[in-house]
Amino acid sequence: MDNKRTSAYFYLLFTVLVDIRFHSFTNSEKSTKFINDLSDTFHNLPLVLSDDPKKFNEKLFWEYVKSFQERYP
User: Fold this and answer.
1) Most Cβ neighbours (<10 Å): which of 5, 8, 54, 56?
2) What value does the mean pLDDT of the chain take?
3) 30-37, long-range: CB within 8 Å, 24+ apart, which pairs?
């Protein structure tokens, strides 16, 4: 994976963290479930990108994202 693509994934992770922060201000059960599912979807991304981006399975990652999007349209 080239540097531009890796940077794009780091930017995506940054936006996810902003979403988590935004949703954490509400104390609803729906927000808690959303934060949990969003975190589950993205939790391995920083480790793989910083350790060895060539090992990153983009297809599998986007399948997880698609599954998340189906639960939270």
Assistant:
1) 56
2) 91
3) 34/72, 37/68, 37/71, 37/72
In terms of residues, how long is the chain?
Answer: 73
pTM check: above 0.70: yes
Using CA atoms, how far apart are residues 26 and 37, in angstroms rounded to an integer?
A: 16
CA of 43: how far to CAs of 25, 54, 60, 71, in Å? 20, 18, 13, 17
Quote the tokens at residue 47: 């480790």
Percent of the chain as helix, strand, coil, to the nearest 5: 80, 0, 20
Evaluated on CA atoms 42, 51, 4, 18, the torsion sign reads positive
Question: Whole-angstrom Cα distance, residue 2 to residue 38?
Answer: 26
In this structure, how many other beta carbons lie within 10 angstroms of the beta carbon of residue 51?
Answer: 10
